[in-house]
Amino acid sequence: MDGTSEVGLRINGKPFSRVIDNRTTLLDLLREQAGVTGPKKGCDHGQCGACTVLLDGDRRVNACLLLAVSLDGADVTTVEGLADGDRLHPVQQAFVDHDGFQCGFCTPGQICSAVAAIAEARAGWPSVVTPPDTPPGPVEPTAAEIRERMSGNLCRCGAYVNIVAAVREVAR
Amino acid sequence: MKTFQYERPADADTAVALLADAPTGAYLGGGTNLVDLMKLGVAAPDLLVDVSRLPFDAVEETGTGGLRIGAAVRNSTLAVHPLVRERYPVLSQALLSGASTQLRNAATVGGNLLQRTRCPYFQDVGKPCNKRRPGTGCPAREGAHRDLAVLGASEHCVATNPSDMAVALAALDAIVDVASGHGPRRVPLTDLHRLPGDAPDRDTTLRHGELITAVELPPPMPGARSAYRKARDRASYAFALASVGAVLQVREGLVHHVRVAFGALAAKPWRARTAEEALLGEPATTASFDDAVRHELAAARPLRDNGYKVPLARRMAVSMLTELAAASAGGTP
Amino acid sequence: MTTLPRVTGEAVARIEARDKVTGAASYAADHPLDGLTHAWPVTATVARGDITAVDDSEALRDPAVLAVLTHANAPRLADAGDPMVAVLRSPHVAHHGQIVALAVAETLEAARAAAGAVRVTYDEQPHDVVLTADRPGLYTPDEVNAGHPADRRRGDFDAAYAASEITVDAVYEVTPLHNHPMEPHAATAVWDGDALTVFDSNQGSTVVRSTLAALFEVDEADVRVVSEHVGGGFGSKGTPRPHVALAALAAKAVGRPVRLALPRNRIAAVTGHRAPTIQRVRLGADADGHIDALAHETVTQTSTLTEFVEQASVSSRMMYASPHSLTTHRVARLDVPSPSWMRAPGECPGMFALESAMDELASACGLDPVELRIRNEPPVEPDSGRPFSSRHLVDCLREGARRFGWHDRDPRPAVGRDGPLLIGSGVAASTYPVWVFPSHAEAYAGSDGRYEVRVNATDIGTGARTVLTQIAADALGVPLDLVRVSIGRGDLPAGSVAGGSSGTASWGWPVHKACTDLRQRVSDAGGHVPDGGLFVRADTEQEAGGGTEYSRHAFGAQFAEVQVDTVTGEVRVRRMLGVFAAGHILNPRTARSQFIGGMTMGLGMALTEGSFLDPEFGDFTERDLASYHVAACADVPEIDVHWIDEDDPHLNPMGSKGIGEIGIVGAAAALANAVHHATGMRVRRLPIHPDTILLGL
Ligand SMILES: Cc1cc2nc3c(=O)[nH]c(=O)nc-3n(C[C@H](O)[C@H](O)[C@H](O)COP(=O)(O)OP(=O)(O)OC[C@H]3O[C@@H](n4cnc5c(N)ncnc54)[C@H](O)[C@@H]3O)c2cc1C
Ligand code: SF4
Ligand code: FES
Ligand code: FES
């Protein structure tokens, strides 16, 4: 048995297809094969969020725990795919404006995550801090909501205070 | 991670057939636990049968007013489903308190049920562990066990089951639908996981190749309240130190129906049957809750560093039942 | 020349901000190279012993595997004087997790599988890894970290303590703590003949370069180290770490470029950690809270490979008036991973102990803890007798108390309640010394009106690139956008390490000097830069190398409010406030982020981060980010930061003190003191996890 498969994906709108080692994670495929190094490897085990990318629109996932072979046909958006030409995505701009990072290593994951978090709240997804009796419909992006929703992205530099401010600005 | 073959069958029968012929193969759900363990060398399947895209991706009402949840439904999808939020708050809350949105977006119901313990020795192939390599010993008993079991453990293993979702499902009397070459069978959630005894390597009562296809919830008890609460070392993105899921129905001040399940206390979601029995027909008061839960937890056998779990679980359960009782009395939904 | 408004002091956005939010910033493992191969470490599974055999046959079966390097077959490295980079040189294992072999393969997948298939056999020897305050073998080191003497005695502590009206005698403990920068230690190395290029993640590539040159016995000029963006370090990248030596070694062995990013769960063992400390503090005071006797005795551990002694008792030498003082350090040399720098080594754990004890003393005297500190303000630095170059602790305390609403609080413990939550608040002082190290810089004026400044600074997230550009622009008297500052490369003029909160001062000074000089030259040339440009060099070997007649420290005051859940024992922070006095703040935007970042890490130290050294294996149990809990977003509330601008002429031309570390100092004590106020419980061992609270309530 040879342990390889052919996969085809779209990465930031561009098709990418190749025969890959079945063991290759989406993160390693992006970084080592597709030359897309925005997504970072902070832990490789789903424990930090630095590898967060968006699947098929705005479903945020940890690319390090997904086998690329299982994603045949998927549409992947990374931090590189968010800006509109030279115009930064509003979340990117807000991170700049609020100094939402220091070393910047967690930032690509934080930004992808924030884009999805805003969409989830608008789509009415509750979080564990949403009061259970909240009526259906968009969830108010309070600081507590944003903190909980952004908790899958660790930042050792401790930029959370500014990240929350940045996300709040866009979510409003 | 060892090399493996990858298959993505279109239907359950093919999936089952593929694994029936592969004694060291495994099903792949979202991969958030299996891929993690494969990277660590703890799991080394030579075949992955991807079941994450099987057509078990719906949440539907059953004829009797219950809910049928496909095994491939993502944890996040289930958590935010309107029927789940409305009728089974305990389940929605349990899911939302687990992991992170990114992980819940990948994790499936089937995979969540079968995720393995977070015991640090189990995860390190450089160390002995009876669960990973039977007969090598259990260093956790003398070593790091602050997170590990106080109930139902054995001298061979003190691991805990880390799932939040499973605790809620235990409290909801869920049934697990399983397919295999021998035809389908239905397993009560509370019989799915097993205590370690002298075979800690076997987490569940499933046989090799059995495929979880769905989880079924009985209809909600009219007027019952339910909730989930989890204590942890950080405010989010952390496994439970202890958790409790409960369903309570009060009639005229008396407990009419009650289900309590604990998480992170044992190798399985721990249904507090002793407490439930003691409470039936009793006044729905803090005093009777406290009594009953103490009874339940009298069976605890803590180790050096995890004794705190007993008062922790007790306080959480008693305060939750008290709150649910108050909500029932107050009539707020 | 017209005078422009100064840009130092302005909240300039990070120069590399756009690169960081678009994914364009390249870190050590992000550089594409033709023919790149990947390495994966094999680590020791025993705490002490000798390797007797390595079986790599299974690993080498995969044709994608290029080599399994061990002490037996790897090219032998020369001795660079640093045991941390003396990799694969000997069969001896000094601690669990030491790297004993390295698999190199065409792909990451193959390298990881190969590493997993290598079988190493050991002659295991008994190990000694348990630190207690009374264990045998504790010794007095010659000196502790940062060159302080291990012991200092002033006056007669014993007699003064015995005669004191009010005494506090308490032991505080901090478990091992792990730096865990989000970017794992990584390097990509490629040889071209005898010339080596590495893309490395470090806090100072000047030293990495000289170390690599020594290890491989090549000319420093032939070693290129590129570290333009570094994903944090917090001290763990302050010295060269094994990954860079291994990547270069492997690249040499296989004749191809090699990338090695350490797996997260191997980092704690080989990149340093904050050593655990057991600290006994005794305070003797009169009824009005005036301290007469102060003892701070630290017991800690180091490894058999190096001696690193966490200088936890050192800040007690200079914080408060204390006529009779005893400050000591005792160390055990154990078979454990080597401890090293972690954000504010010494001050951070030490001030947790001292500032907790101060809170205990305030309770014992029935005094307000802010007032207690003010009463013990020393006229000169107690240890050396030197004057402080500036000290605004009292102003920070007063300003903080005012902003926090401190005086509205009911001082009695365990009276604040909000349903099942107990609410309390606490205060602690912060301090951090002023460090400055000699560095070099070059400045170049082009005839096109542009300027380039070169200094081997490292921006690990501090904002160094930005603030150096501000310093240069002001010294040159030109707008910011005409100045380009190059940093993060070993071939640039030598810069000191990004550590000890010394970066801005150390690098900014020669930048300031070179740019001031260059401005003069441009002016001398009639304001016109000739074709070919003008070029100057500067260094601060003289200015920064010597001593000073002043005691120089930054100070601060931290206030925190917590809630303690009586059902679960969970402690959550409701708000934090820090007021700091740290010289001139050169960039309020990045400075604020630094202070907040330090306080956030202090929050983690107080409440979430804990590590257990397994006595059976000599290994840390919490090695990954799922079990070692750095604070998550949900743990961190609004954190409010202010500062008192100091005009201190005894520092450097910019008038700045370091700001990268002071934020973590005192944060844990403020939180622990708040927990005491909330519950009446004194928690003297960190972290304050739910179990501690539950068992104490
Ligand atoms: C950092 C981190 C934090 C986490 N925190 C939490 C937490 O707080 N609470 C919590 O509950 N969980 C937590 N998790 C665990 C997470 O919930 C599980 O990893 C996830 O639910 C597993 O689902 P999956 O679909 O990805 O399973 P997989 O990894 O795909 O599979 C897990 C197991 O189930 C088997 N399997 C999968 N599907 C089927 C099926 N249909 N039939 C039979 N067998 C099947 C696989 O063979 C495998 O053995 C965390 C995980 C990580 C990495
Ligand atoms: S508790 Fe169970 S899983 Fe953990 S070391 Fe012991 S046997 Fe292994
Ligand atoms: S790298 Fe994927 S979660 Fe950390
Ligand atoms: S900015 Fe450095 S880890 Fe978040």
Order of helices and strands of chain A: EEHEEEHHHH
Q: What's the architecture of the largest domain in chain C in CATH terms? A: 2-Layer Sandwich
Q: Which descriptor suits the 3D outline of chain C?
A: globular
Beta-strand portion of chain C reads: 25-35%
Q: What number is the mean pLDDT of chain C?
A: 97
The assigned CATH architecture of the largest domain in chain A is Orthogonal Bundle
Count of DSSP strands of chain A = 5
Strand order of the largest sheet of chain A: 2-1-5-3-4
CATH superfamily of the largest domain in chain A: [2Fe-2S]-binding domain
Biggest sheet statistics of chain C = 7 strands, mixed
Structural class of chain A: alpha+beta
Keywords (chain A): Iron, Metal-binding, Oxidoreductase
Domain 2Fe-2S ferredoxin-type (chain A): 5-82
Protein name (chain A): 2Fe-2S iron-sulfur cluster binding domain-containing protein
Pfam families (chain A): Fer2, Fer2_2
Describe this structure in words.
Chain C: InterPro entries: Ald_Oxase/Xan_DH_a/b, Ald_Oxase/Xan_DH_a/b_sf, Ald_Oxase/xanthine_DH-like, AldOxase/xan_DH_MoCoBD1, AldOxase/xan_DH_MoCoBD2, AldOxase/xan_DH_Mopterin-bd_sf. Chain C: Residues 22-126 form the Aldehyde oxidase/xanthine dehydrogenase a/b hammerhead domain. Chain C: Keywords: Molybdenum, Oxidoreductase. Chain C: It comes from Streptantibioticus parmotrematis. The complex is a heterotrimer of chains A (172), B (333) and C (697). Chain A has helices at 26-33, 90-97, 107-122, 143-149, 160-171, and strands at 4-11, 14-21, 52-55, 59-62, 75-77. Chain A is α+β, with helices and mostly antiparallel strands. Chain A has two domains: 4-81, Ubiquitin-like (UB roll), CATH 3.10.20; 90-171, DNA polymerase, domain 1 (Orthogonal Bundle), CATH 1.10.150. Chain A is globular and about 50 Å long. The model of chain A has no long low-confidence stretch (mean pLDDT 97). Chain B has 333 residues and is an alpha+beta fold. Chain B has a domain at 225-328: Enolase-like, domain 1 (2-Layer Sandwich). Chain B contains twelve helices and twelve strands. The mean pLDDT of chain B is 97. Chain C starts with 16 loop residues before the first helix and ends with a helix. With 697 residues, chain C is an alpha+beta fold. In chain C, a hairpin with a 3-residue loop joins strand 7 and strand 8. In chain C, the strands form seven sheets. Chain C has a seven-stranded mixed sheet. A six-stranded mixed sheet of chain C has the order 9-17-16-15-10-29. A five-stranded mixed sheet of chain C has the order 18-19-24-25-28, sandwiched between helices. The mean pLDDT of chain C is 97. At the A-C interface, helix 1, helix 2, helix 3, helix 4 and helix 5 of A face helix 1, helix 3 and helix 14 of C. The structure holds flavin-adenine dinucleotide, iron/sulfur cluster and FE2/S2 (inorganic) cluster (2 copies). Iron/sulfur cluster (SF4) binds next to loops of chain B.
